[in-house]
Amino acid sequence: MDGIKYAVFTEKSIRLLGNNQYTSNVESGSTRTEIKHWVELFFGVKVIAMNSHRLPGKGKRMGPGHTMHYRRMIITLQPGYSIPPLIEKRT
């Protein structure tokens, strides 16, 4: 899937896991319906709400241009569903 970049692990996102809400960065061109459909299909869960906000790209000191803009999605799942951790613990 090209839409979802990676999961976000900040203090807020870890706190939201208790409310069955998962946070990830997605491509700025992806729509909510595309992301919702992909999450439900890939993880086999039921999404009940999605919130998003656009994060600005960072400017560069040297050279032209800025870094790409991206969106952060907070995905709320129906009670009883969960997304398994993507990172396994190494021993």
TrEMBL record:
PROSITE patterns: RIBOSOMAL_L23 (PS00050). Keywords: Chloroplast, Plastid, Ribonucleoprotein, Ribosomal protein, RNA-binding, rRNA-binding. The keyword Chloroplast applies. Its main location: plastid. Gene3D superfamilies: 3.30.70.330. It comes from the Eukaryota. It is found in: Plastid, Chloroplast. GO terms for cellular component: chloroplast; ribonucleoprotein complex; ribosome. One of its GO terms (molecular function) is rRNA binding. Binds to 23S rRNA. Belongs to the universal ribosomal protein uL23 family. Part of the 50S ribosomal subunit. This is Large ribosomal subunit protein uL23c.
